[in-house]
Amino acid sequence: MWIKVCGTTNLDDAKLAVELGANALGFIFAPSPRRVSPFEASKITAQVDPKVETIGVFINQAPSVILDTARRAGISGVQLHGEEDPGSVRNLLALALREKTPLKVYKAVHMSTIDNSFAWDAESSKMLAGMVLDSGTPIQRGGTGRTFDWNEAAPLVRVLSRRTKIIIAGGLNAQNVTRAISLFEPYGLDVVSGVESEPGKKDPAKLRAFFEAVHEAVQRR
Where is the N-(5'phosphoribosyl) anthranilate isomerase (PRAI) domain (predicted)? Predict the structure, then answer.
């Protein structure tokens, strides 16, 4: 099970997450109480095992800005958390290729806003390293501490799972992650508020409990 611990703001939290088994660390460069600068992120990414993905979170930024930030922060991937469409991702990947900057792109989708105009069909989803299904809204993009309606979303998640790797986010914690794994059988999980003592600061006990719950749930599958 791929696990991303997002909202990383300091090296101690990063080290503990990796020690517990995190496959990825998230750094928020968009407006948020967990926001870090590229320089602050670079001091952390420089000391993280290269095997661990380091993913920057952006909202409706130009490809050139995203790529410049990625270089300065030393991150290996980006998570687009705004209204970015397949064309935006295509432009970003083309720019990264031209400038010889390897970059994975994940797209966050706000489950409350999916409608018939949903742009990510099977073909365009192939560009993505994964799709993050979150409970955020256009007002509060992520870190809400709330889940989306899992029962209502389950049929759609099964469809999306045939298109790309699905990562469940939004309100995950040690108490509910077992159900999320059982219901969605996702590729991965993205956790923030459920393992914090306050925005931007991880709670070691909550973080350990989350990883223990995930490992137990995976072993039972």
Answer: 4-212
